[in-house]
Amino acid sequence: MGHSNSTLQFHELSAAGIEKEIPRIIRISYESRWSAFASLSGMELFLDGPNGEPMYALDFDKGLSGDIILHSGPSVDSPKLAVSGRESRFDNDYLVRLPSLSGNAPQEVILYCDTGLKTLFWFDIQVGHGPDQRVEGFEWRRSRGAEVKSVGQSRSGGYKLVRLSSTNTKEKCSSSEEDLHDGSTKGQGYSSDGKEIVAVWANTSRLTSLSGVGEFHFRGSGATGELGQLWALMAVMSCMSIWQMDRRTAAASHAGAAGAAGAAGAVGGGGGGGCGGGGC
Q1: What is the reported pLDDT for 177?
Q2: What's the pLDDT score for residue 175?
Q3: Do the beta carbons of residue 85 and residue 206 sit within 8 Å?
Q4: pLDDT score at 179
Q5: 266: Cα within 13 Å, side-chain hemisphere
Q6: pLDDT of residue 263
Q7: What stretches of 1-66 adopt beta strand conformation (E)?
Q8: Residues of the chain falling short of pLDDT 70
């Protein structure tokens, strides 16, 4: 991937919304239960604070395949705060554009996705404040562990965002096992290999809410503000990019299964016709 997504360049971002502190807990939902079934052509998600206060809106302009636009207010008419997208439908990596805090060009961060034997998601971004700023690596890992189970009404698993000690790709790939059960010797708040967990995403079960999508919680140093507002924004945008990818994969799998069932039915129907003609 060349990471020069041309469609993202047309989105004019406003840094005004970054002044509003991103809440530690974000609940994400569809506008209504029926919106969940109309996600192919376009959809909107709404981000509320911990007390249900409307905060942001997410616009998936082409449903599960197009760009993801985060608006700085509770409607898609609010200024655009950040945007994420792929260069083409054949790419797995996402390019995330974040607003500039200094009046320069928007910052671009790549969410890498490696779909090998184990699907890996990671990104490198500048964190901290003032002279203490530095680039660090972060990785999203699938999880059904205690951290995810502690979020809201989660029954469907989710992801945890871990803070790596470096931006070394080898470290990412070697430590990217799925943390299905938290077995860290450091206790809760750390992954099984001792990495700090800085954010958690839990999918909402359809059994508990037809309009709910999931909950996002900042944890540890991710909740203190020490990593910076742009990092927090990247954490949210990378999470929703992965959510879009998961939904797209699930939709393709469902369509493939339906097609296979239809083909099997057609074959079975043909054989049934022969029996009806007196062959059985």
Answers
A1: 45
A2: 44
A3: no
A4: 57
A5: 6
A6: 59
A7: 25-30, 43-48, 54-60
A8: 1-7, 9, 32-41, 153-155, 166-187, 206-209, 254-280
For residue 157, the one-letter residue type is: G
How far apart are alpha carbons 91 and 275 in whole angstroms?
Answer: 49
Give the whole-angstrom CA distance, residue 148 versus residue 62.
29
Domains of the chain plus CATH, in order, are 6-247 (3.20.90)
Q: What pLDDT is stored for residue 262 in this prediction? A: 60
Q: 273: part of which helix (H) or strand (E)?
A: helix 229-274
The CB-based long-range contact list for 100-103 (8 Å cut-off, 24+ gap) reads 100/13, 100/15, 101/15, 101/18, 101/229, 101/230
Phi, psi angles (nearest 5°) of residue 94:
-115, 140
Residue at token pair 């999470």? 239
CB of 219 within 8 A of CB of 197? yes
**What is the per-residue pLDDT for 51?**
92
What would the two tokens of residue 107 be?
A: 């910052």
Distances (CA, A) of 44 to 6, 31, 40, 58, 262: 22, 7, 11, 6, 32
Tell me the DSSP string of 228-267. -HHHHHHHHHHHHHHHHHHHHHHHHHHHHHHHHHHHHHHH
The answer to whether 173 and 137 are in contact (CB under 8 A) is: no
Of 58, 56, 54, 50, nearest to 72 by C-alpha is 56
What one-character DSSP code corresponds to residue 268? Answer: H
CA pair distance 93, 114, nearest whole angstrom: 8
Give CA–CA dist 136/273, Å, rounded: 65
Per-residue pLDDT, 274: 44
Phi-psi region of 194 (alpha: psi -120 to 50; beta: other; left: phi over 0): left
